[in-house]
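Limitations

Structures in this collection are predictions, not experimental determinations, and the ligand pose is part of the prediction. Treat each record accordingly. The example that follows, with S-adenosylmethionine as the small molecule, is included so readers can see exactly what is and is not provided: the inputs are given verbatim, and the output is the predicted complex.
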Amino acid sequence: MNFDAVAPIYQLMERVVFGHKLQLARCAHLPASLAVLAGGESAKILVIGDGDGRFAAQLAEEIVSRGIDEIVRVDVVELSQGMCAELRHRLASYPFCRVHCADVRDWRESDYQLVFCHFVLDLYRGSEFDQWIEILDHLVQSAGYLVVTDFENHPDGGIFATCLLRVMYQFFHYSAGIPVGQLEGRIASMDGLNAELVGEFSQLNGFVQSRLWRKI
Ligand SMILES: C[S@@+](CC[C@H](N)C(=O)[O-])C[C@H]1O[C@@H](n2cnc3c(N)ncnc32)[C@H](O)[C@@H]1O
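Predicted complex:
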């Protein structure tokens, strides 16, 4: 899997197809999730596969506006070199954000209070998805929060959403080498994750879902 070729046009493509709706979904749980850091002495936040960094930049802005940038560290772990270049450019003025060009499945640090994972898990199926559940369980500290945003084959999405999903995954199959195949619907329940669902945000008739999980 390699998103380098898509990196320079990723934002434009998204804007043309979805307008601002995906960014709204990514940021839906920002206020609630950042609120849990209030009053703490220090906090570690992880953003997984943030692509071109629009979410991480918004997160950084929120952290600054809440005046908690002195106590927070944000690790952004992204696989694609092209996306990392975009990320470094966007996050240059936020010294508390560090960009790491790496596969998060090899990431050794754990116990994050907050972990964000937007539009990444839908790229993984079968046993690879099982591995992600274990990894996420390890990355989020107990009583910490995980936000997962993804596309879903929702029954209310209709024929348009089903066709759009097919076209999108075919495009990313050829441009970035993601596996083809139906979505498995496992993101909705995150079975095996030691966490309870505490917040849900839905866009485009359920086609895009963002969920806030609290680790038990
Ligand atoms: C479909 S893009 C989504 C980008 C962004 N999160 C968003 O909300 O638009 C998936 C991104 O996840 C990254 N990615 C996929 N697997 C990863 C992994 N194992 N570790 C780190 N990044 C990963 C890809 O390089 C790509 O930039």
